Amino acid sequence: MTSIEAKFAQLGTDHAPGQEVRQADRGTGGQLRGEPLAGTPVDFSHGDVNDSAFPPAPGALDAFVAGERRGGSQAYTEYRGAAVLREKVAKHLSAFTGRPIAADRELIFTPGTQGALFLALGATVNAGDRIAIIRPDYFANRKLVTFLGAEVVPVRLDYLGHTDRAGLDLTELEAAFTSGVKTFLFSNPNNPTGVVYSPDEVAAIAKLAEQYGVTVIADQLYSRLVYSGQEFTHLAAAGIAPERVLTIMGPSKTESLSGYRLGVAFGAAHLIERAEKLQAIVSLRAPGYSQAVLGTWFEEPKGWLADRTKQHEAIRDDLVKVFRKVQGLTVRTPEAGSYLFPKLPALAIPLHDFVTALRVQARVIVTPGTEFSPDTTDSIRLNFSQNHGAAVQAVERITQLIERYRKA
Amino acid sequence: MTSIEAKFAQLGTDHAPGQEVRQADRGTGGQLRGEPLAGTPVDFSHGDVNDSAFPPAPGALDAFVAGERRGGSQAYTEYRGAAVLREKVAKHLSAFTGRPIAADRELIFTPGTQGALFLALGATVNAGDRIAIIRPDYFANRKLVTFLGAEVVPVRLDYLGHTDRAGLDLTELEAAFTSGVKTFLFSNPNNPTGVVYSPDEVAAIAKLAEQYGVTVIADQLYSRLVYSGQEFTHLAAAGIAPERVLTIMGPSKTESLSGYRLGVAFGAAHLIERAEKLQAIVSLRAPGYSQAVLGTWFEEPKGWLADRTKQHEAIRDDLVKVFRKVQGLTVRTPEAGSYLFPKLPALAIPLHDFVTALRVQARVIVTPGTEFSPDTTDSIRLNFSQNHGAAVQAVERITQLIERYRKA
Question: Which of A275, B3, B145, B190 has the CA that lies 20 to 30 A from B402?
Answer without folding.
Answer: B190
